[in-house]
């Protein structure tokens, strides 16, 4: 019988461990840190070893546990660990397979605890990549090409440059507009700890570096980016790494366990209504399902709301079928998929189009789709107003058109979703113009959040006030 040892601490290692659990394959999983252990599920089939091992310790571990197959799923830049694993396997005559990523360019923000690596061929490609990334950027490529980064949107607020502390360098940086706290003039080398401190101090979301080798502190930068869970944009593509993908490793495990009757099972897609805000607005059933997902899609604001409590899943800021389904076509290793939608799944939600897309070939053959409803904005607002909504007409001006006056003529109460164009001010203007001066408007902003605000008044009373562009309004004539 095959006895498997997985060296993990990465998403790939976790996915393979979960596969062993699902298929009831006894496996040993080695991780170097407590965090690596924390993202692994508790299972009678998984035997966790926490703490890094030197080559001779790996060799002893393999012999002691009778390991016959080793899967090296350590981080791409954990080169020393991979060397030790190969050495231990050579000394013990154990089969060893390196697990490689299908494409590092396809990694998306949200893969917490491991870091994301975007390889680009040149500076121009790096700038294009940065245009798609939000948040602060730490540039460590030197001062000579620093001016190119002024092409990045809102660069004055977002770019933090680390350069040598020479007077001419500092002067050149200040002349191009990079100065004050955005200019870090320091002499390296920098340890991983120092890099981590800078990333946290300046709230960095992305680190830009060249593939500069050990002399340039490249491993320390990559280690810090990985531990802080931020994106690293690396100028200079690496050579192709030999090995197998997660999908191929699963096939190898099934072949190595002939006694297992491994069936091709449908994957599960959960369409989850998140309610008005974070996790406390979801149903208990929806929250439990979300905790079982290995990849979660949604708008960035929704993903950020669950990051602190769900760290094990890969998080991808996509929310339309045209983006999500092609991504899943490439990343077949994910079997529990969660897609987040604000509010309720049945009230002007993207759930409808996603469910329709999943019901078509070939996706209906691959996925079982389950919908988890959430608390709608109309239900929440009416509860805060201590009123029912059984006679309320529901309409949306959020990216849509609707004759609100006609609806108000036919219905005593109308609930409206607004957007950045169809605002409270424009609604007040229309109501006054059409003779609804005495209409009662209840405007809800940031519902369920700490800064929630509900304003009640006539069109005349609130017409000059500023409201969040994603407000909702209950109009009573």
TrEMBL record:
InterPro entries: 4pyrrol_Mease (IPR000878), 4pyrrol_Methylase_sf (IPR035996), 4pyrrole_Mease_sub1 (IPR014777), 4pyrrole_Mease_sub2 (IPR014776), CbiE (IPR012818), Precorrin-6x_reduct (IPR003723). CDD domains: Precorrin-6Y-MT. Pathway: Cofactor biosynthesis; adenosylcobalamin biosynthesis. Keywords: Cobalamin biosynthesis, Methyltransferase, Oxidoreductase, S-adenosyl-L-methionine, Transferase. PROSITE patterns: COBK_CBIJ. It comes from Lacrimispora celerecrescens. One of its GO terms (biological process) is cobalamin biosynthetic process. This is Precorrin-6x reductase. Residues 268-462 form the Tetrapyrrole methylase domain. The lineage of its organism: Bacteria, Bacillati, Bacillota, Clostridia, Lachnospirales. GO terms for molecular function: precorrin-6A reductase activity; protein methyltransferase activity.
